[in-house]
Design a protein that fits this description.
The structure holds two protein chains of two kinds. Chain A contains twelve helices and 14 strands. By secondary structure, chain A is of the alpha/beta class. Chain A folds into two domains: about 170 residues, Rossmann fold, CATH 3.40.50; about 130 residues, Rossmann fold (3-Layer(aba) Sandwich). In chain A, helix 1 packs parallel to helix 7, helix 4 runs parallel beside helix 5 and helix 8 packs across helix 12. Chain B has one domain: Rossmann fold, CATH 3.40.50. In chain B, helix 1 crosses helix 4. Chain B is globular, with a radius of gyration of 17 Å. Classes of the chains: A alpha/beta, B alpha/beta. At the A-B interface, helix 4 and helix 5 of A face helix 5 and helix 6 of B.
């Protein structure tokens, strides 16, 4: 893998770039512009940047009003505060009217680290995927992030895009083309399929590459678009490999694992293992320590994969 | 002029208000549920807006230069629907479909109906939305104005005060908030449930230019909206004292008619009074 890069910096730079060519793009933040990196946009286009202060509910409403009047608002804060502090505003003011608001949150998941459990969004995706018509994307790296932001700007309707705080290994190269609603096949394989999103894609690749040395041949899918989910790729993976492992930096409940299981239960019931946060909140610690503590490692993925393969014959 | 704003005399506005009140009680009766109290208290406010103040055109509901009216207290959808029908946005007969399966007239107003700018129903969200509209107008150097109607009970919601802080911060002189201060909410008198008074002082302290009026007096409403246009670098809050259930004797100041339909006998009395 070719080095690390920051997803939120990719967001900030891409938003700035889009702002230069599209005067309708505006940005909003809730006193976190230095962290979410909307600051790049704010500095270049102060008249198109709306600092809302620490008031996420108001920010979502303002964004909806701007969208209703033809703007393309990007509203940012930490993943724990949106949807956490403004679920109903996203539901009623944005989603119900299908307004063209792009909610881009950073600091998703456990890898927030030392700030602790209150700041680690592990249920945000469950909340936003529950809203009809909401597109939900969790990019795997900085390269994908840039493309996702451009796609969101060019596609009408409400989006929720969740980014991480950490710099993270690139899993894609510059030739990568993000396709909305399509899983990206990163490793071909026959014995099982690992479906991952966000930072866990790199971890899934690490696990798959290690297992390959042991003669276990796994397919790896990057399911960046959590909603609408690529049911076709899931069904194909189930038919061709017969076993599925999902991996996410989110509660096992209501995230990627649940979404994949829904697809499979309706189509090709298939043995599955879930790698995600069990039914607990996080705590302070270094990001990698937390991933270890809560079982989001290549080793856990490998164990889950070996287990699911044994279940195929049952 | 691509506009429906017309300088109807107060005598005409009074006739329209009476028709709206009759439509409101009739449609809520037909629906078998709904919110008559707050709909009736807002009648003069909406009548003044749609027939004296707003620049709008019922044949072109998405006209980009229209003034925006945001109904934040979405449960009083009947007064908005009756007003939109009176303007020609929808047929008067359609009012009788209120709250029925498949109707465009949802129990709480929804954006899918042409003329309704925002889906509402969960209180406290309209002022923020209005700020977004006002900011967009300023960015685009357009002169359309944004009017948001809230209830005094609705001002319990914290988001209202987030927005109340935000609008003066952005010096939005193209934004007007109107509070229909009818003094009642579901559990009783606003002063007993959660006292929102002194409302004017609160808005003023947050940086608004405030105007206190009788919300049933057309002359005061017209003057307030005209005065609001002259205020610069500051949003305007019109605190309109009203009577919940106004115009129907047994509904006036009666908390029971916040969210209850009249029965057939009550409808008959109401329609006799509304002449």
């Amino acid at each position: 893998m070719a080095g690390k890069a920051s997803l939120r910096e990719a967001y900030g730079k891409t938003l700035l770039e889009l702002g230069k060519t599209n005067p309708d793009i505006v940005a909003l933040d809730a006193d976190l512009s230095k962290s979410t990196m909307t600051l790049f946009f704010a500095k270049e286009f102060p008249e198109r940047f709306f600092e809302c202060g620490i008031s996420e509910q108001n920010m979502m409403g303002v964004a909806a009003g701007l969208a209703c009047c033809g703007k393309i608002p990007f509203a940012s804060t930490f993943a724990v505060f949106a949807p956490g502090r403004c679920f109903d505003q996203i539901r009623v003011s944005i989603a119900q009217s299908h307004h063209n608001v792009k909610i881009v949150t950073t600091h998703g998941g456990l890898t927030v680290g030392e700030d602790g459990g209150s700041h680690q969004a592990i249920e945000d995706l469950s909340l936003v995927t529950s809203m009809p018509g909401m597109t939900v994307i969790v990019p795997a790296d900085a390269i994908e992030t840039a493309q996702v932001i451009k796609t969101a700007a060019a596609t009408k309707g409400p989006f929720y895009i969740r980014l991480s705080r950490m710099e993270w290994p690139l899993v894609n190269d510059e030739s990568y083309k993000f396709q909305l609603g399509k899983a990206a096949l990163l490793r071909q394989g026959k014995q099982a399929t690992i479906i991952a999103m966000g930072l866990m894609v790199a971890t899934a690749l690490e696990a798959a590459d290690k297992m390959k040395l042991d003669g276990i041949d796994c397919r790896v899918l990057n399911m960046a678009t959590l909603k609408p989910i690529d049911a076709q790729a899931i069904v194909q993976a189930a038919r061709e490999t017969g076993a599925i492992v999902t991996v996410e930096e989110h509660l096992e409940h209501g995230g990627l694992g649940s979404a994949v299981a829904e697809v499979l239960a309706k189509t090709v019931p298939t043995p599955m293992q879930f790698v995600g946060v069990k039914d607990v909140y996080g705590q302070s610690g270094k990001p990698l320590e937390l991933l270890e503590k809560y079982g989001l490692t290549a080793k856990e993925i490998e164990q889950a994969t070996r287990r699911v393969i044994t279940r195929k014959s049952l | 002029m691509n506009s429906q704003t017309n300088a109807l005399p107060v005598s005409e506005l009074q006739k329209i208000a009476l028709r709206l009140r009759r439509e409101i009680v009739q449609m809520i009766f037909t629906a078998g549920s709904g919110h008559p109290g707050g709909s009736l208290s807002s009648v003069e406010i909406l009548t003044t807006l749609y027939f004296r103040v707003l620049r709008h055109n019922h044949t072109d509901p998405y006209w980009p230069d229209r003034d925006r009216f945001i109904l934040s207290k979405g449960h009083v959808a009947p007064v908005l629907y009756a007003t939109l029908a009176e303007c020609g946005y929808l047929p008067i007969e359609e009012l009788q479909t209120l709250r029925k399966l498949g109707s465009r007239l949802q129990g709480h107003s929804e954006h899918s109906l042409p003329g309704v700018e925002m889906s509402a129903g969960s209180l406290g969200q309209g002022l923020s939305f209005g700020i977004g509209c006002a900011l967009a107008a300023r960015l685009d150097k357009k002169d359309y104005r944004t009017y948001v109607l809230l209830g005094d009970g609705e001002c319990d919601e914290g988001q209202v005060w987030e927005a109340a802080m935000s609008a003066p911060h952005h010096k939005l002189d193209n934004l007007v908030a109107i509070v229909d201060k009818n003094g009642l909410q579901i559990d009783g008198f606003t002063k007993d449930v959660l006292n929102t008074e002194p409302l004017s002082d609160k808005f003023r302290a947050f940086g608004w230019h405030t105007i206190d009026i009788d919300g049933h007096d057309f002359n005061q409403l017209i003057d307030a909206f005209e005065h609001a246009r002259t205020v610069k670098r500051q949003p305007v809050a019109i605190i309109a004292k009203t009577i919940k259930g106004k115009g129907v004797s047994f509904m006036e100041n009666n908390v029971d008619f916040h969210g209850k339909a009249p029965n057939a006998a009550q409808l008959e009395i109401a329609l006799k009074e509304l002449v």
